[in-house]
Amino acid sequence: MKINQSIAISENGFVFNPITGDSFTLNNTGIQILTMLKSGKTIDDIKEVIAEEYDVDDLVLERYLQDFFSDLKLNSLITEG
């Protein structure tokens, strides 16, 4: 997955897509995931970091990430590839 490099992410969770003009607010975990994507981390890297930081079942984490990435794609914040 690749994040659109023009996406602006603030420390307080505000995300702005200058291409569409859309803005979003994320929680701390969402910010962390987008920041990792923007820095070039893979999905496996992200899973590993989140699993280490939070006490979460692997299946729950997988489902959360699938839903989150689906929302990011739907809102043109990331692309596959």
Widest sheet, order of strands: 2-3-4
Write down the overall mean pLDDT.
Answer: 91
What's the CATH first level? Answer: Mainly Alpha
How many DSSP H or I helices?
A: 3
Number of domains: 1
**Oligomerization:** single chain
Structure in words:
The protein contains three helices and five strands, in the order ββββαααβ. By secondary structure, it is of the alpha+beta class. It has a single domain, classed as Orthogonal Bundle (Arc Repressor Mutant, subunit A), CATH 1.10.10. The protein has a three-stranded antiparallel sheet, covered by helices on one side. A hairpin with a 4-residue loop joins strand 2 and strand 3. The radius of gyration is 12 Å and the shape is globular.
What key attributes describe this structure?
3-stranded antiparallel sheet, Arc Repressor Mutant, subunit A, alpha+beta, 3 helices
Quick structural overview:
About 50% of the residues lie in helices and about 15% in strands. With about 80 residues, it is α+β, with helices and mostly antiparallel strands.
Give the secondary structure arrangement, pairings included.
Blueprint: E1 2-3, E2 8-9, E3 14-17, E4 22-25, H1 28-38, H2 43-53, H3 58-74, E5 78-79
